[in-house]
Each structure stands twice: as C-alpha cells, then as structure tokens.
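Hi there, hope your week has been kind to you so far. Thanks so much in advance, here it is:
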Amino acid sequence: MADTRKILRADGLAATPHGFLAGVGYEGEPDPELILPGGKLVLLEQVHSPKAVLVDSPYPAGARPEADAMATATPGLVLGIRTADCAPVLLADKGAGVIGAAHAGWRGAHYGVIEAVVRRMEELGARRDSICAAIGPTIAQENYEVGWEFCEQFEERHQRFFKRGKPGKWLFDLPAYVTWRLESLKLGLVEALGRDTYADEGQFHSYRRATHRGEARDGRQYSLIGLPE
C-alpha cells in the first residue's frame, strides 16, 4: 500500500529533496522514494548522544551505529531521523553537494550534536555560510514542563529558554534553544517550522502526550533529506 502521509517542507530547503512526515497510525520505516526516486534510506541507532557520523551507504538493520546525526556527500542516499518530541534538524549545502540530519533532543543539543553534524559536513566540503538548516515538528515550550533537576543541567546564560510554570516547575523552549545553537554557528539560513508535536495530535506522535495519557509511547515520525544523483 502506498504511503500517503502528509509531507511538510521547509522553504529554506526547497532546492534539496526533503520532508518532515506528518500523520499518525503508520508503522515500519518510511519509503525513501517519498522524497527521492531511487533513494536508499540511511538510519541510525539513536541514543540521545552528541555523536555524528559520516555515511556513504545504508546500514543493515542490526548494524546501525549508535549516533544521533550524520552527514553525507554520496548521491542517492536519503538520511532519516526518528523523533517523537525532540527536534529533527535537516541541513544542506546544495552547492557543495553535502547534506546532514540530526536528532536534537535537549541532551543531544546541549552536549553538541548540532555542532558535530556541521563539523562532519565541513569535512565533506560544506561551508557554514552556505548551509541551510530546518527544524521540524518539535514539542513547544508551553507543553514542555520540567523540574529543577532539569534546569540544573543548563548555565545561567540559558535562562531565556525557560519560563515559570506551575509551582516548582518550569517550561523549556526546545525549538528556540536548537535555533540558537544553529544560529550561533553562523549558518547561511536557519528555519523553524513551528509545529508542536504535543498539541497537534492529529498530525504528530508525542512521547510526552502519550505518557500523560497512559497510552503506548512507541510512536515516531520521520524526517528525511536526500542527495540527488
């Protein structure tokens, strides 16, 4: 059966095959041909780390490296990232023929996964001022309640990404934090789609929403970016 889920696009990546897959009720891995005819899907064993790898071919299902970002200059590959509230980040330097993708939860973003994937892209010939980055559907601040033990992981300069919530609670702005990390690298363009995974239950899986409701928490959505032949 054909995959008919909705595909969201970022204006800044319009020149590069890509898509943030919306829709719920889907199982299994996405078809890379949704964005790149003949494309071969590359996935990682994501572990909320700051590690980024270079890829030149797909990995067998049981042999995917533990990493949360990747970059390639190999035509025909489609890089895929799985998320359920964390920020999927897709990147491209079209002129250099280099693409990247990152799974940026708070931990990965805080400890350097965004910087790591940009460095990997540079190793392949990308230039920071030519890289366009797009942040896909992510949990919004009003739905990301955290406690003091979470806040303690951050520095005083990060206070702007928190606001007071209920007594003893704060609200963390993950998409703004990821945007700031990207913009700090002086990239050519940084774009955020501004779609909230928690609030839009008709379009997105949300680990936190499922937890609050006592529902199954294994739902995910995929974000894909490909490099044409």
The first strand starts at residue 7 and ends at 8. Residues 180 and 190 are 9 Å apart (CA to CA). The chain has a mean pLDDT of 93. The first helix runs from residue 106 to 110.
